Amino acid sequence: MLDRSGEPRPNCIVIDDDPAVRRIVSHYVTEMLGVAPQQFELPSDALDYAALNPGIGVILIDWHLGDTNGLQWLAPLGREWPAAVFVVMSADSDPRGFVEAAKCCRTALWWRKTDSIAMLGSLIQVAMEEHRRRISGESSQTLGELKDQAIREALALHGGNIEQAAKVLGISASTIRRHLST
Fold first, then answer.
1. How are beta strands 38-40 and 11-15 bridged, if at all?
2. Which residue, of 21, 99, 122, 169, has the fewest CB within 10 Å?
3. How big is the chain by its Cα radius of gyration, in Å?
């Protein structure tokens, strides 16, 4: 499927053990992209799907999948879909999860389920752009560039309010101020 500019739209998958979250996130992705993502309760099912579907661009995965840590699946999923960008979803506001995700794979964005669905949309847009860069051979954004883009998106979403943007991103307002001053 093509977007308005004629570029191919990356396919998305949603991996979450909570069927309500899968349904809500998938509905939002469908509304946003016009393409329904595949939904999986288990990452192992997503790996089986990978064998027949190499073109996945954005993987939305829950940090806590029952008794397992969703982050342990980032490397195997990333091997199957090397151009994919991960959006790690979590109900937890502990920022250590983002740090762990960044260590596990080249690119991981973080969305807290308590944040606005519009913020998820912004992160999906960032992920789609990064995926497009990867498949077109353009240089990928660094984690710092992705962080910068996420900060800009959060500030735009919250009318430039640094405190609100920081809350949505799970970082301190002083971190955003330092980032803006560089």
1. parallel
2. 99
3. 16
- Residues facing 58 on adjacent strands: 12, 85
Beta-carbon neighbour count of residue 92 at 10 Å? 13
Residue 86 CA to residue 13 CA, distance in Å, equals 10
Hey, what domains does the chain have and what are their CATH numbers? 11-138 (3.40.50.2300), 142-182 (1.10.10)
Tokens in use for 179? Answer: 């980032």
Q: What is the pTM of this model?
A: 0.71
For 5-35, how does the pLDDT look when each residue is reduced to its tens digit (9 = 90+)? Answer: 455 555 889 999 999 999 999 998 888 877 7
32, 40 Cβ separation under 8 angstroms? no
Whether residue 96 is predicted with pLDDT greater than 50 in this model: the reply is yes
| Helix (H) or strand (E) run with residue 112 in it | strand 108-112
Q: Is the pLDDT of residue 38 over 60?
A: yes
